[in-house]
Amino acid sequence: MEGTESRSDASSSVVADWSLVFWTLCSVILPVLITLWCSFQRSRRQVLIRDIFRKSKHDWHYTDLFGQPSYCCVCAQHILQGAFCNCCGLRVSEGCLKKADQLFLCKEIMMRSNGGAHSSMPHHWIRGNVPLCSCCMICKQQCGTQPKLCDYRCVWCQYTVHDECMMDCLKTEECTFGEFRDLIIPPYYLSTINQIRKDKRINYEKVVPYCRKHWMPVIILANTRSGNNMGETLLGEFKILLNPVQVFDLSKIAPAKALQLCTLLPCNSVRVLVCGGDGTVGWVLDAIDEMKIKGQERYIPQVAILPLGTGNDLSNTLGWGAGYAGEVPVEQILRNVMEADGIKLDRWKVQVTNKGYYNLRKPKVFTMNNYFSIGPDALMALNFHAHREKTPSLFSSRIINKAVYFFYGTKDCLVQECKDLNKKVELELDGERIELPSLEGIIVLNIGYWGGGCRLWEGMGDEPYPLARHDDGLLEVVGVHGSFHCAQIQVKLANPVRLGQAHTVRAM
Questions:
Q1: What is the number of other CB atoms lying within 10 angstroms of the CB of residue 490?
Q2: How far apart are alpha carbons 88 and 155 in whole angstroms?
Q3: What is the largest CA-CA distance in the chain?
């Protein structure tokens, strides 16, 4: 009996051990299998969504969480995540995406030709998800207050109408393009221009929308890599308010190509809004110079700036602010562009030649808008640029960018790579040689601001020097003793070494 009991105990312990092993394997393998299945389904779903996005005429973007209460334009259900169109504002759930693509038309950048010229177009109404605090154009009461898919919005003039106020006459009524009619390029204008080009005529002056005298179409050029990476959001907001053909992403199309749209518009009427840093503005100004070389002086646009970069010294000098972080609505930005007055900006040629009597290389010629320098700040800018080109994903905000500048500035304080610059460089201002004191850097200024908002020429403001101007035909030349001296100047604890003002500067 004892032998039988021992054998039964041993067999039960073996069963218990195998049972433990089995359930342990299940607890490990089952979550892995579920994770793999979910990732497979997610990747399959993403492929299907990307395929719909690629074939669609809508500018669809997917989001995991809408920023405001949203309802699917197809099934009218409340949705937290889904797709939205950057041009017309449609919002749909993932399951209704394909159906919405078939049911709803997006903004047309150019009207379909029906055999004749057009000078007007009806409203393009989209139901639901109207902007907060919008008012009905009929009864003047607030729209979008009910927790459901309700009310209408015109994708061109941005007018909103209650469901009960919508009448048949409104569906065929002529659209006025709303507040920003002077900035929008109407689809019927582009279709008329297209017909004129087919007829081999080039007189676009007679094709002015609405017979308005003050039509000033705006072109948006946004750099999605600048500063705090707000360009992607701004592109969508501008496409909602304007014709999508007016909005360009500079990471996908070069400014020189985008500015060719100016040649289809009336002469001296276009304004360009550059959304980016000072480097982006310089890129666009160089493209405008190319237009002059091509003989397109009549189509040269005026340039406005929305500062998205790190320093934004040029924007600050021209009165467009030291930086934009979304605190001003896009509508107010467009109003500022409409109301802005034109001013002039000096631009200079910088020629770099190699020393030597037998140098056969052509000199390199650059255009300067802000300033150029020899010394520690130039070294910091070079290191920053090289680091950003190598790992652009790290530079996602102004704070990180300035921290990188601070790192390289601190490094230079310890290493002092530019020490005794005055012994290596000779300086001439308007042909007159300048005796240099002990310096580590020389900075030549065209604008008033430098280094992210510092008035370098004026320094602490305790000495009576004339203000630096951007339109006086003069360059301001200053020296610095090193990176630590630059930091002291920025916090107004020191003055720069003022070397003089000149029309021409030569450093040898």
A1: 16
A2: 6
A3: 119
Per-residue three-class SS string for 72-112: CCCCCCEECCEEEECCCCCEECHHHHHHHHHHCCCCCCCCC
pLDDT tens-digit profile of 335-384?
999 999 999 999 999 888 877 666 667 888 889 999 888 888 777 777 77
Cα gap 64→489, rounded to integer Å: 46
In the numeric block, the tokens 């009960």 are attached to: 164
Q: In terms of C-beta distances under 8 Å and separation of at least 24 residues, what long-range contacts does 96-99 make, across chains too?
A: 96/72, 97/49, 97/52, 97/60, 98/52, 99/74
Q: CB 232: neighbour CB atoms within 10 A?
A: 14
Compute the half-sphere exposure of residue 232: CA atoms within 13 Å on the CB side of its CA. Answer: 6
* pLDDT tens digit sequence for 418-460: 787 878 888 889 988 988 888 888 899 999 898 888 888 888 8
Most confident of 38-42, 383-387, 469-473: 469-473
CA distances from 328 to 234, 238, 294, 319, 325 (A): 12, 13, 37, 15, 8
Determine the 3-state secondary structure of 480 from DSSP.
strand
